[in-house]
Recover the amino acids of this structure.
């Protein structure tokens, strides 16, 4: 049934592009590097947003909204931030167009030049900490636990739908605390929120870790991350949580009076996940026939397709289908009865396979007579005849089973594709032939990390939080090392 | 208790600015004309979004996301659209900054100039219809019922928090239809969705009408609107719904094959409401002591404040308060028990009055002994002692009563402030002294509308949908008129 030209085996990258567009997730737009998120893709993003937003609120955060434009000078205030973020960005220089005197549409009105250029936010630390200065005076104002859902722009040269786009959607949490300890706890708590979400909803296991110093967020003291492994053995950074120390508080002069009446700089964190998660979701579970979605994030969890030859049969089947719809909805299952007569059942089967609806129920005249339905799982493509009686409970269990099964497969893959290398030869072979995560000793220098990247395309994904200190020698230079770090080729 | 310096009576405009900032709704940002929506303000916007989004989905719409940048040339494609929208806007001309060779922060990299400038969307018809061209081939692809939640930018010279800001948040629906009739029905349906939402949730009555030709959305065949009256007798346009005819389909060459196999241009609508609704909400109900929020949109509907002298009393009161919290939550009421010991009850009373929490419950030691609580309504400031037993039902009914009462007051105001003028003298007097809506005959010309505006500052808000055709003479020129239109001074 597949109308795919690419397969994962032959060309994973082409397969990904094809599935994203053919399954109606997203497409490239008229603006270089910017995507259109199509309704079926956006519906999944909305489900992700809702779950994450609930989790943020459960952990005491509130939402707010800050301007998308940031005065250029703000970026220079935090020394390392400017290097990381104020370079490849969209710059607003004018605020008016006028009719072209030559009659060719509109042109920029040169008299409407901004005194100071505005940058479309690539991330909002600067404008937010500028604002926090007015909000924080006393320890009573802390902690400040704020999140923002927003669009951001980073002028990327090479873009890929969801994975790396010039404009993308994300949430960015920005919190302010009275103590270092509390800020670090917040950083770690939000990393856990992300890891739990990716595991429990996206059905993807992740490695929690911290970034090496040269991979840190620009302006952070420590960057925590979660790293996931895709089907092709490449890693994908799925979320980051930064402990910012007092860097931004110092850059924007944000102080508070502590309980002892003394002035101190505020401690900060920031953390974010983006529409990049859509890329991770698609790449983790889908197959050569289309999307495979974990039930918890599938906008439609069950589709019912009637199979009939005449109106009489359709009427009979519809009665049953509508009852099933009602029963499933009572259990909180999202279900669609596709009774369109403009499309044949075979077309519908292919369509829902492509779109990744987890469970398909087909009902024919014989099913109607026998009190059965034909039930098909998208993930395993198993089909079986199931009793009509008790179908809602059956489907509910099945959805849970699918969710768990997708996770188990992803976890098995991650386990299988995580190796240890003790020599350079081992390392090269593992990275080039097996792929996945390779744990190895590294001498702690940027120079060595860069050389390893040049030689193998592998980068240090993180220093896993759960890895033990072990004495050893750097796989490349032989210099002493105290801990293995995790390498992988990455998105 | 009020810490306000302005009152509605003396200076409505100053009162509005003060309430928006002091109640923590929004504040001006470092970027001219752009606001920061603060957590308490954003929480109300989120409630509005949730209700509206549900209503859009109930009426068959889905969400999607289109790029925030629009190529400059797109605006020239629809002749009247360019005049209305491509003038005062944010223009992105460059995509990179570099270090200032003089060491003063960062400057624009002149070598990174875009070939074609990008406009930050002031509205998205152009980029969306460019995209729809790829999505629509056949009548089977129609209708396309899509909504987008987004930020937009219109470079306003004079801005006011929520009412008119350079960047604002909104939703914009963009639908495509096979027939003119269906598109007009959609335009009217969405106007009704808006009017019902404003009435049932915001507790504000509106007049539904159509805009005169010179007030139409740039590119529309007909603009429908809802107009609401504020406490100062000025009108506020609360939402618009546009029938776009085939204008954008023609500009972007979007055709479909109809059931007869013939190619036709697609019919379009667009409709939107924005964070401006926050301004309407605040201005409609609030008083000189702070916000008054309709319970259906209040993020916190009930607050419980303990009044105690020692830990023993607090413990006793807390037990009762926590039981009440539980009971209220069971009824779906959002409630907060403010047991902070860092603030005194008096401070808390003032705070929640300012923030507009609809119902306040105070519990003192005597209440605890007597099985009562002290219950205060924010809108009327009435206080009464109420039995602890059955409190949840009591509060639930009270919240409904408050919601209804706010609407009744707003409706009474609208009725009282709606007049008819049959002569110019009457008209001037009504506009200048009484304010509100004034229905009057108008000769249908832009020239006359402009003159009336110059003389009185009143503009034609709309031609009400329910107004009957009546022969008459224009109040200014005496020229014949077939229908009264609604004038008002407006925001």
């Amino acid at each position: 049934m597949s109308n795919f030209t690419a397969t994962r085996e032959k060309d994973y990258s082409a397969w990904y592009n094809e599935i994203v567009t053919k399954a109606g997730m997203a497409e490239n737009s008229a603006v270089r590097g910017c995507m259109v998120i199509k309704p079926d893709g956006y519906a999944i993003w909305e489900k992700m947003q809702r779950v994450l937003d609930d989790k943020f609120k459960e952990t005491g955060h509130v939402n707010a909204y800050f301007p998308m434009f940031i005065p250029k000078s703000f970026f220079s205030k935090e020394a390392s931030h400017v290097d990381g973020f104020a370079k490849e960005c969209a710059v607003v220089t004018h605020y008016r167009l006028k009719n072209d005197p030559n009659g060719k549409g509109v042109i920029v009105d040169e008299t409407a030049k901004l005194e100071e250029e505005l940058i479309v936010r690539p991330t909002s630390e600067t404008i937010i900490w500028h604002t926090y200065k007015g909000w924080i005076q006393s320890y009573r104002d802390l902690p400040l636990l704020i999140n923002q859902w927003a669009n951001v722009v980073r002028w990327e040269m090479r873009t890929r739908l969801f994975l790396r786009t010039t404009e993308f959607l994300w949430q960015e949490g920005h919190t302010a605390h009275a103590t270092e300890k509390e800020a670090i706890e917040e950083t770690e708590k939000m990393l856990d929120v992300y890891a739990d979400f990716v595991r429990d909803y996206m059905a993807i296991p992740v490695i929690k870790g911290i970034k090496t110093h040269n991979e840190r967020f620009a302006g952070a003291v420590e960057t925590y991350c979660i790293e996931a492994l895709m089907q092709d053995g490449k890693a994908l950074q799925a979320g980051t949580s930064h402990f910012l120390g007092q860097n931004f508080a110092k850059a924007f002069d944000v102080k508070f009076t502590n309980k002892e009446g003394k002035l101190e700089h505020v401690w900060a964190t920031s953390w974010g996940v983006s529409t990049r998660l859509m890329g991770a979701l698609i790449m983790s579970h889908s197959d050569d026939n289309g999307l495979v979605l974990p039930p918890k994030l599938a906008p439609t969890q069950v589709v019912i397709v009637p199979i009939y030859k005449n109106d009489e049969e359709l009427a009979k089947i519809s009665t049953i289908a509508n009852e099933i719809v009602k029963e499933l909805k009572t259990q909180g299952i999202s279900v669609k009865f596709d009774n369109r007569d403009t499309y044949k059942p075979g077309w519908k089967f292919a369509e829902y396979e492509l779109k990744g609806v987890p469970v398909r129920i087909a009902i024919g005249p014989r099913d109607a007579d026998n009190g059965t339905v034909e039930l098909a799982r998208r993930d395993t493509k198993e089909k079986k005849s199931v009793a009509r009686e008790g179908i809602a409970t059956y489907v509910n269990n099945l959805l849970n089973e699918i969710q768990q099964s997708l996770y188990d497969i992803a976890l098995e893959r991650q386990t299988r594709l995580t190796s240890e290398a003790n020599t350079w030869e081992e390392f090269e072979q593992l990275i080039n032939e097996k792929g996945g995560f390779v744990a190895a000793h590294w001498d702690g220098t940027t120079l060595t990390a860069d050389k390893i990247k040049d030689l193998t395309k592998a980068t240090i994904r993180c220093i896993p939080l759960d890895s033990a200190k072990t004495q050893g020698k750097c796989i490349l230079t032989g210099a002493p090392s105290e801990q293995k770090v995790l390498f992988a080729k990455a998105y």
Summary: Chain A has three domains: 12-285, 300-400, 418-488.
